[in-house]
Amino acid sequence: MPTTPLKIGVIIGSVRTGRFADKVAQWFLSEIGRREDMDVHVIDLSEPALVAELKLTLDATEPREGALTLAQRIGGLDGYVVVTPEYNHGYPASLKLAIDYVYREWRAKPVGFVSYGGLAGGQRAVEQLRQVFAELHAVTLRDTVGFHMAWEQFDEQGRPQDPDGVGKAASVLLDQLAWWGLTLREGRAARPYEG
């Protein structure tokens, strides 16, 4: 019996000017775009309106419209893949800010990671994000996609130097995301999560 495609958010966590995230994200979006069981929604934290609203909300006593819109966007999804760099052994402050603006909407949903950085390939950032998402009652996927020395892993057209290796890693990640996404969606429908 066919099921409705999972609504998957691809969250681009870097907001730096000239960021490398664009190459990594575009590659991953092409990988996930091949799936018929997933409907992709990009949440780019560098969107000007989103950046402005998140900055303004820092000083607000009540949530502003932009933060509420982000919560609605996150809440309407069945799962997420976070594309994150590793900065100084951690993940970007912009990503933490966006995660913290949303609370209940993350619950009982799967989160996967595509990371990039130096020798560790962004894995130290991913391990920290696992702790944050556990506190939000989200389920993080075991397998990730990581690009060590990322700037050396892509050609001038933005294609990975090892398309088979990273393509296989992406396939494993997306298969896990599909299983957890469908299982948790059915679970939330049968019995809302109140954890």
From TrEMBL:
Annotated GO MF terms: oxidoreductase activity
A Pfam family the protein falls into: FMN_red
EC top class, as a word: oxidoreductase
EC number: 1.-.-.-
InterPro entries named in the record: Flavoprotein-like_sf, FMN_Rdtase-like_dom, NAD(P)H-dep_reductase
Keyword Ligase set for record: no
NADPH-dependent FMN reductase-like domain ranges (all copies): 7-151
Keywords (A to Z) from UniProt: Oxidoreductase
SUPFAM superfamilies: Flavoproteins
Superkingdom of origin: Bacteria
Record-linked PANTHER family: CHROMATE REDUCTASE (PTHR30543), NAD(P)H-DEPENDENT FMN REDUCTASE LOT6 (PTHR30543:SF21)
Name of this chain's protein: NADPH-dependent FMN reductase
Species this chain originates from: Streptomyces nogalater
